Amino acid sequence: MRGLLCSPLLMLLLFLQPWETQLQFAGPRCRTGPLDLVFVIDSSRSVRPFEFETMRQFLVGLLRGLDVGPNATRVGVIQYSSQVQSVFPLGAFSRREDMERAIRALVPLAQGTMTGLAIQYAMNVAFSVAEGARPPEARVPRVAVIVTDGRPQDRVAEVAAQARARGIEIYAVGVQRADVGSLRAMASPPLDEHVFLVESFDLIQEFGLQFQGRLCGKDLCAEGGHGCQHQCVSTPGTFHCACNPGYQLAADNKSCLVVDHCSFGNHSCQHECVSTFGGPQCYCREGHDLLPDGRSCQARDLCNGVDHGCEFQCVSEGLSYRCLCPEGQQLQADGKSCNHGCREGHVDLVLLVDGSKSVRPQNFELVKRFVNQIVDFLDVSPEGTRVGLVQFSSRVRTEFPLGRYGTAAEVKQAVLAVEYMERGTMTGLALRHMVEHSFSEAQGARPRALNVPRVGLVFTDGRSQDDISVWAARAKEEGIVMYAVGVGKAVEEELRQIASEPAELHVSYSPDFGTMTHLLDNLRGSICPEEGISAGTELQSPCECENLVEFQGRTLGALEKLTQNLAQLTARLENLENQLATQK
Questions:
Q1: Do 557 and 373 touch, CB atoms closer than 8 A?
Q2: Which residues share a beta bridge with 69?
Q3: What residue stretches are annotated with the VWFA domain (predicted)?
């Protein structure tokens, strides 16, 4: 920040001569521009009383040469030893007389030398807006002048670097016993312009005399090195960069950017806005065309221009398209045809899901997704297919019974909400629960008289820790069609024991959870009524009059046929008896 050289430091030159000759100083005076200036004064015990008085007069003399005011130079003073004390902040005084009064009343702290602590305070507090510093966007230079006579008792390099990074220009003035290495660690570059060392407080005025040749009258823009991309504007003691029309200054305060008209928020572009010299310009994403209004975008309809082959519906999406199926049907692997699902029959389906610790949480989520894919091809409704879910580990828990949900969406949402149980694998206990409770009318199963097929699907990944034989057999005796789906370490013998015959149609296996989806086609072909167990089943109440008459008629016909068969059998027996009697 060489631009700060024509600043209060000129006043250092004016007032660092013998005080009685200051008013006779010859040569031009620089009028300082806007500046936030903080003096950081060492008042440790090593500074003797008469030396501190010399420093006090030094500060008063400097103030008399500054253009002090709210819109010119603001001055703050802090003193430090083992602690830091604010003498007055930047925003405290706008009159020089008030500042001088506060400096003359200053009492030294006379303790240690914590220079790093003082720099930290200056950076975080003294140069804050709350203390009277102007905000960074005002681009008012911030200058700290540190005057010390000894070696710091804490670290200064890191905190001084942080202060410089925040835009504070640091001048380090060492007197008598000051450590040169510490001064260089604190000061801003170039060091030969920001580090000063004098032999005693009596000679501190030499601090100003060394700069007499370069403190005043320089056009910093003309010297070059300012880094401005477009324009450099000189002001007393500093400079700032400006941009040509149509550009704005970037965050580095040197580069220029095209004015971002799009950021104003009134461009109305549907997709993308690009700033140009002429204003905002709207563009559309790939696969879309800009409409005549210059703002709206329309997707290119590829479905009208290609032979898409979709069985139900084609939807354009940018540079491609995709096929859709009606609600309740799934898109097949060819991406065009639709799976029509279970639509003609009715089933009461109970799913027994293994929630033991061997499954693991991430795989249990895959199981839930697999269950929902099964639900997708079912006609879920109170009159169609009803679905219930039971989870088992060391115990059994009904997640939801058959009669609770009446749509596929409700079932799928309930499946996703199921929480993983962990623990053991009591498959036999789960089968018993299914037989005794899950297919009861209280749980939502339809009466046996309605002839609605009952299907149980057991999903497991390992060997059961209890006996399954009794309740697997009991389930089939109760007329429940059983399916067994095994994954990973599932035991084939147990799967066959659980499943109905033939096992080839009722047992499915996948080596891992990530490849289970290939089992869906087999299960759909087995579970769907129109493809298997209950094609054409119609729900009829046996109590309706027409049904009673029909039932009675069919029963009488069957009895009549049985009577005829019995008469024929009796005749044959009599014929055999006659033949035996003749042979005797």
A1: no
A2: none
A3: 36-215, 348-523
Examine the pLDDT at 545 and tell me if it is beyond 80: no
> What is the end-to-end Cα distance of the chain in Å, rounded?
142
- Determine the angle formed by the axes of helices 361-376 and 408-416, rounding to 10 degrees: 180
CB-count exposure of residue 311 (10 Å: 0-12, 13-18, 19+): middle
From the CB of residue 409, how many other CB atoms can be counted at a distance below 10 Å? 12
Contact 569, 563 (CB under 8 A): no
Q: What average pLDDT does range 554-571 have in this prediction?
A: 72
3-state secondary structure of 507: strand
Nearest to 496 by CA among 209, 504, 294, 317: 504
Q: Which residue has the higher pLDDT, 162 or 307?
A: 162
Peptide bond into 190 cis (omega under 30): yes
Tell me the β-bridge partners of 331: 338
Amino acid occupying residue 412: K
Q: How far apart are CA 247 and CA 257, in angstroms?
A: 5
Backbone angles phi, psi at 222, to 5 degrees: -70, -25
* Structure tokens belonging to residue 503: 């096992």
| Two structure tokens written together for 528 | 């769907």
pLDDT in tens, 383-392: 889 999 999 9
Which residues fall within 8 angstroms of residue 519, CB to CB, at 6 or more apart? 370, 485, 508, 510
Q: By three-state DSSP, how is residue 481 classified?
A: strand
pTM of the model: 0.38
Residue 123: DSSP 8-state: I
Give the E-state strand segments of 48-119 in sequence order: 73-80, 84-88
Q: What share of the chain is helix, strand, coil (3-state, %, to 5)?
A: 35, 20, 40
**For the segment 398-435, what is each residue's pLDDT rounded down to a tens digit?**
999 998 999 999 999 999 999 999 889 999 999 999 99
Query: d(Cα 189, Cα 195) in Å, to the nearest integer?
Result: 9
Inter-residue contact 168 to 141 (CB < 8 Å): no
Please, which residues have CB within 8 angstroms of residue 213's CB and are 6 or more apart in sequence?
none
